[in-house]
Structure formats: structure tokens, C-alpha cells
Write a structure and sequence with these properties.
The structure is a single chain. The chain is of the alpha/beta class. It has two domains: about 5-175, 3-Layer(aba) Sandwich (Peroxisomal Thiolase, Chain A, domain 1), CATH 3.40.47.10; about 180-325, Thiolase/Chalcone synthase (Peroxisomal Thiolase, Chain A, domain 1). Helix content is about 30%, strand content about 25%. It has a five-stranded mixed sheet with strand order 1-7-6-4-5, sandwiched between helices. Strand 12 (about 305-315) and strand 13 form a beta hairpin. The chain is globular, with a radius of gyration of 18 Å. The model has no long low-confidence stretch (mean pLDDT about 95).
Length: about 325
């Protein structure tokens, strides 16, 4: 008996042209390149230009993914955008992307789970495709996190950047085994008791302003590895796979120490980890698809590879996915 799976057809990315190095940032706040790299692994980040919005980044990444899939936009009937930095309070930024791409059918909406957002969006699209509600989806992570930062706060402004990445998914009948291509499992978690450890101090119904990002860095770090291990172990239990079966580990790119600590605890070999945090910094919901685009584009991720995704972010939220490319 066959099953419908959400198979990856294409992947794309977009990074703003503006690059801010640690050395440049050190002229704005009391920090230096060595301090940032030692604590985070970050060397530089991309920043959206004035007048360059989250939708612009998402549109560019979506077009790149469609080109990679050799598919036209009118083949898409679902757009799911993961973002914490929408163009406007409403409508959803996904509908702007939908309109600019010329997609005239189906549905488009945003998902907000901060740094876990892309995996949440992937899980959402996967459920719609497997149910038969839609046939082809664009799953996008796009952020302009630089607009949420207090550039006088060195504990947060050094960590984040802007960018976008996208996947094209298509529903396809597969044999119904763990050797199938496509999304094999997704695992989603949240615990709102920790929401004040990583948050933005503004919003339409509270302050009427956008606000700035605040984070208890040590506390986030303390919880991160355990939460990541939780959802990865759940993915392994759901599929019967283990760390040795993974071809590529594509984690959320928040902090090199968290990535390395998680991989070590999970027993994943360092040479299987895709790292982009040094060049991109933390692009929140965009970080995983940006890393996927990098590793698929340079030939590391190949058809048939088993790829493990994981993320943890504000909320707290945390999530994982196992995908056979």
C-alpha cells in the first residue's frame, strides 16, 4: 500500500547584499571579533537594505527554489511562510509573496514560531500535502531580524542577521517505508513557561510598537541542548533511524557552541554537520533553509540522503524533521 509523501523538488536562498563584519560592528558597540567568534562562531551577517522587506527576501528565495525545481509558480497551490518579522501586522506576508509570484490559486499564510518556524511551516505544509488538500507547496523562511535589534546592546545585536530560504515540496506516492523520499517525520514542541527568556518587548495589543529583542542568553543556552535532543530522539523513535544513519545534520544556526554540543550529545559526527552561522549569524526561521540551499547547492546534500533538521527558539519552541532528499 502506497502513501503520499512531501518530496523536495527544489531549494533556494537569498541574502541581502549588505554584509556587516564583526570588525565593523565593534565600531558601534563595545565588542570585538575575537569575543564574538569565541562565544558564537559568528564572523559576519547580512542586513536588509532600507526599503528591502521580508517579502522581498522571501520572493527572491522562492524564485530561486522554483528555478531549482524547474517549476513555474503557477504549479504551486500552497505558500507557507515562517517569519517573526512580517511586512505588516496584516495581511500575512505570505499573500504578498503569493501575489508577486503570480500564484492565483490555493492558499497562503504565515506561521510564527520564531527560530523553530521553518520546521513548523514544513510540518504544516507536509500535513496539507499528505492529506490531499494541496499538491505543491512553497515553504519559506524569511526574516529581517535586524529591524528588531537594539544596536546598543552587544549581547543581542551581534547574534542576528537577515535572509531567506525556500523549499518546493510536491506530494508523491511512495512505497510507504522509511526508505521513501520526502518528509518522514516532524516533531513539534513548545512550553510557554519560558517565553520571557527570549522575547520582543512590543506588539500591536500591548505597546502598539514593534519593540526590541531581549534574551537571557545563558538560560537559553542551558535549555537548548536538552530540548534539541528531545525532538531528535523522538524523530529517531518514529522512524527507527539513529545518529549513524544520518547523512547530513542541518541545525538551526544560532550559536556554534550549541550546534557542536547538540551533535556531540546525539552522537552525530562533526563532518556531517552543515554550518553557516559563521557567515549568516542567526537568521531565525530562515537559517535552516539557507543552510539547506548552501549544502544542496555545493553538492553535499544529494538525492537519497537522509537529512536531519532541528531548531529551538523563543516561546520556547523546539522542533525536528527527518527528510530523505
Amino acid at each position: 500500500m502506497t502513501v503520499r509523501r512531501s518530496v523536495v523538488r527544489g531549494v533556494g536562498a537569498y541574502l541581502p547584499a549588505r554584509v556587516m563584519t564583526n570588525e565593523e560592528l565593534s565600531r558601534k558597540v563595545a565588542t570585538d571579533d575575537a569575543w564574538i567568534q569565541q562565544r558564537t562562531g559568528i564572523r559576519e551577517r547580512h542586513l536588509a537594505a532600507e526599503g528591502e522587506y521580508t517579502s522581498h527576501l522571501g520572493i527572491a528565495a522562492a524564485r530561486a527554489a522554483l528555478a531549482n525545481a524547474k517549476m513555474s509558480a503557477d504549479a504551486i497551490d500552497l505558500v507557507v511562510l515562517a517569519t517573526s518579522t512580517p511586512d505588516q501586522t496584516f495581511p500575512a506576508t505570505a499573500v504578498t509573496i503569493q501575489a508577486e509570484l503570480g500564484i492565483l490559486k490555493g492558499a497562503a499564510f504565515d506561521v510564527q514560531a520564531v527560530c523553530s518556524g521553518f520546521v513548523y511551516a514544513l510540518a504544516t505544509a507536509d500535513l496539507f500535502l499528505r492529506s490531499g488538500s494541496f499538491q505543491r507547496a512553497l515553504v519559506i523562511g524569511a526574516e529581517t531580524f535586524s529591524r528588531l535589534l537594539d544596536w546598543s546592546d552587544r549581547t543581542t545585536c551581534v547574534l542576528f542577521g537577515d535572509g531567506a530560504g525556500a523549499l518546493v515540496l510536491e506530494a508523491e506516492e511512495q512505497p510507504g517505508t522509511m526508505k521513501d523520499r520526502g518528509v518522514l517525520t516532524t516533531q513539534l514542541r513548545s512550553d510557554g513557561r519560558y517565553r520571557e527568556k527570549l522575547y520582543v518587548d512590543g506588539g500591536p495589543s500591548t505597546t502598539g510598537t514593534t519593540g526590541h529583542l531581549h534574551m537571557e542568553g545563558r538560560e537559553v543556552f542551558r535549555y537548548a541542548v536538552g530540548m534539541i535532543t528531545d525532538v531528535v530522539d523522538a524523530a529517531f523513535s518514529a522512524t527507527g533511524y539513529g545518529a549513524n544513519d544520518i547523512d547530513w545534520f542541518v541545525p538551526h544556526q544560532a550559536n556554534r557552541r550549541i550546534i557542536d554540543g547538540s551533535a556531540k550529545k546525539l552522537g552525530i559526527a562533526p563532518e556531517k554537520i552543515v554550518i553557516t552561522v559563521d557567515r549568516h549569524a542567526n537568521t531565525s526561521a530562515a537559517s535552516i533553509p539557507l543552510a539547506l540551499a548552501q549544502a544542496a547547492g555545493d553538492g553535499r546534500i544529494k538525492s537519497g540522503n537522509l537529512v536531519l533538521l532541528e531548531a529551538m527558539g523563543g516561546g520556547f519552541t523546539w522542533a525536528s524533521a527527518l527528510v530523505r532528499w
